[in-house]
Amino acid sequence: MGTNKKVKIGLIGLGNIGNNTHVKYLKTMDNVELVGVCDVAKEQADKIAAECGTTAYYDYNQLFDQSGLEAVIIATPHYAHTPISAEAFRRGLHVLCEKPLAVHVNDAQKSIDAYEKAKAANPQLVFGMMFQERTLPFYKKLKDIVSSGELGKLTRVTWINTAWFRSQAYYDSGDWRATWAGEGGGILTNQCPHNLDMYQWLFGVPARISGHAHIGKYHNIEVEDEVTAYFEHDDGMIGHFMVTTAESPGTNRFEIVGEHGKLIYENEKLVLYKNRMSMLQFLNETTEKFGNVESWYTEIPVNTKAPTGHKVVAEKFIEAVLNGGGELIAHGTEGIKGLTIGNGIMLSSFTKQMVDVPFDADAYERILNELIRTSKYIKTVNDSGTSEADMSKSFS
């Protein structure tokens, strides 16, 4: 294809992330033409369309019918991801979806099914997920080291990620935020899809999940704002996952322990304690009663100059659309994996028992629907200043 080929793209959802992130990088890309922006808030759609020199739509079917788009970026509140993506695939459109893919596993499966069906008719159809944290240099290096197998058999992973502090004002900034009906969950659905994706990208989906979620413990919200989870993998590795939006200063510490050493990522530093021999072999063979394996402290060099973020994910997506396929930062079908972990944690917490994966997705959906139906929560909304909020503070 010629270098001057442009992908006709539409953007649906012009809230914080749509307006403050997607619109900004799309303006800088010379291989895309923004043929329409869409939001149910008419004023916002009109304003952004005028700024971008494009057409405003207030209904995604209108955008699909009239704009001549080839690809769509979905940046709406979570529940809308499913019907919009399914309809886009039905029309043969390429889709780049914001995280999470859906609120629950059943909805995620609907999007994936719609994609697989459309892909049978057009094998070059591209489906990407906006997991931009996979582009972050330290996470890329963790992936590199874990995938190489140099840690040997992995025994434990502990991720304390409490650097997601959110004020009550944040939760009050939108009527859909932190409600079962609007968002379908709290920290696991909003802040942590990246972390849940990162976990499965590195280690796969656990076989068993025990979750402990606290609902509105620190904020006036009806969803979870503090979660501790324990995972078991079939190969014997265990995992811990601790997150909250109510800790300041927060911590982001990731420990990955294998027989050949321990990796620690914290404060933009990656350290490997490299064992001289396998700790599992050592514990079986040593005659010492209290000896440790000799290990060497190594700070791992990481290239922090490489470009990162939403734009990198979008560029890969656009390249794949132009080239009839190609490598993406994250394929859409992978979106169900982190979601499985998140739903599993909540299901375990609601039922107060460990769940096996795969679990009964219908049972989780029933619980969610019941929480929506019986909600007595009255939402106070104060959205002053959020449309121009600085989103950069929101990304780790």
TrEMBL record:
What range(s) does the Gfo/Idh/MocA-like oxidoreductase N-terminal domain occupy? 7-119
Any one Pfam family here would be GFO_IDH_MocA_C3
**Domain GFO/IDH/MocA-like oxidoreductase: residue ranges:** 139-263
The entry lists its GO molecular-function terms as:
nucleotide binding
Tell me which InterPro entries the record gives.
Answer: Gfo/Idh/MocA-like_OxRdtase_N, Gfo/Idh/MocA_Oxidoreductase, GFO_IDH_MocA-like_dom, NAD(P)-bd_dom_sf
Q: Which SUPFAM superfamilies match?
A: Glyceraldehyde-3-phosphate dehydrogenase-like, C-terminal domain (SSF55347), NAD(P)-binding Rossmann-fold domains (SSF51735)
Protein origin, superkingdom: Bacteria
Species of the source: Paenibacillus piri
- State what protein this is by name: Gfo/Idh/MocA family oxidoreductase
